[in-house]
Amino acid sequence: MEELKTHFLRTVEWKENKVIMIDQTKLPSSLEYVAYTDYNDVANAIKTLVVRGAPAIGVSGAFGMALAALQSSSKTKEDLLSDLEKAKKILFETRPTAVNLSWALEQIMQIAKQSETVSEIRNDVIVKARQMAEEDININKKMGKNGAVLFQDNDTIMTHCNAGALATVAYGTALGVIRATNESGKNIKVIATETRPIQQGSRLTAFELKHDGIDVSLIPDTAVGYTMANDLVNGVVVGADRVLHTGHVFNKIGTYQVATMAKQHNIPFYVAAPLSTFDLKSRPEDVIIEQRKSSEVTGIGDKKTAPDGIDVINPAFDMTPPELISGIITENGVVKPPFDESIKKLFEAKK
Ligand code: MRU
Questions:
Q1: What is the dihedral of CA 318, 180, 269, 154, to 10 degrees?
Q2: pTM of the entire structure?
C-alpha cells in the first residue's frame, strides 16, 4: 500500500476537466483513485460510497455540476440551465440525509443563473466548484482551532464514524479538531469506534489517524459504555450530516448511543460542523433518514453472519437531541446550549 500523509490527502479534486476522487470502498487495503468525466458517474460514486461524508459529497456534487456544464451541448443559456437542473436532480437523489449536498448544488445553480452566456456559465460553475473545495479546507482548519481549546493535555477523545480528511476535501471536521489539538502540542489519544455496518471508524478513521501518527485505539461499537464507565474517555467529538436550528444533530447511526452514554458518565460531547451543514428550516420529523440495504447487516464483506431471509432494519443515520450535546464547533466559533438562541445568533452574526 502506498504510504501517505493524510494532511496532504485530497479526497476529491478537479484536474484537467475531470473529477478525481479516492475510492473509499477500497480502503484501508489499497489507495486507489478514480477519475470521472460524466456527472452520472459522480452520482453513482456518491450512492455507492466511493465518496462519502457530508462535506465531501457536497463538493463532489458541485464538481458533478461542473461536469454536467461541460457535457451539455446546449447553445443557449436557457437550455444549459435546464441541463444543469436535470443533473442537479440526479445528484440530489443520491443520498437524502446530509444537507451539504443540496446546499452545494443550490450554490452552483445560483452562480449559473447569474452568468450571462453559455461559456461564462461553464467557466463560472467550474471556478465556483473549485473555490468550494478550497474553502472546505480553510473552514476545517478554522474549526480545528476553535475546537482544540476544548481539550486538555493527556485527554483521550472518542470519535464515531469518519469525520476526517476522507469525509471532507482534506483535514476533516471532528478529526480536524483532533488534528488541531495534536498540532497545538497537547498529548492526546483517540478512541475510534468501529462503526458497523460499513465500518467507517475502522476502515477510515483508524487508517487516517494511524498514518498521521496520532495515537488511536479501535473499539467495537459495543464497548462505548465500557470505555466510558472505566474512565478511559475524557471527551467526544463527532461530525454531522445535518444540524437543525434547535440543535438536533443528524449523524452516523450510533451517534445517539454514544451521546447518551457520554451524558450518563458526565463526559462532554461535542459536534464539529461547518455552517453549510446547518439546516435552519427543517423540523426533526422532516429529515429523511437514509435506509440502506440489508446485506450490510447480514454479512461482513463476503462472509454471511446472519440466517437467510432475516428481516433487517438498517438506518444510516440517527438524531441526537440537543440536551445531550455540550457544544457545536463551527468555523465561526463554538455554540453552546440553549442552541435555538446560540445558533440564531451565529447566523445573525454571519449576515
Ligand atoms: O454514510 P457516511 O459515511 O457518508 O456518513 C458519514 C457521517 O455520518 C459523518 O460523520 C458526517 O458526514 C460528517 S463528515 C465530516
A1: 140
A2: 0.95
Integer Cα distance of 161 and 194 in angstroms: 7
Rounded mean pLDDT of 26-36? 95
163, 174 Cβ separation under 8 angstroms: yes
Which atom number of ligand 1 is nearest to the Cα of residue 174? 15
Tell me: pLDDT of 7 over 80. Answer: no
Task: Measure 118 CA to ligand 1 centroid, in angstroms.
Answer: 35
Q: Is the C-beta atom of 68 inside 6 A of ligand 1?
A: no
Residues 6+ apart with CB under 8 A from 106: none
CB 179 within 8 A of CB 144: yes
**Ligand 1: distance of its center to the CA of 160 in Å?**
9
- 331 CB less than 6 Å from ligand 1? no
Amino acid at 295: S
pLDDT level of residue 8 (50, 70, 90 thresholds): low
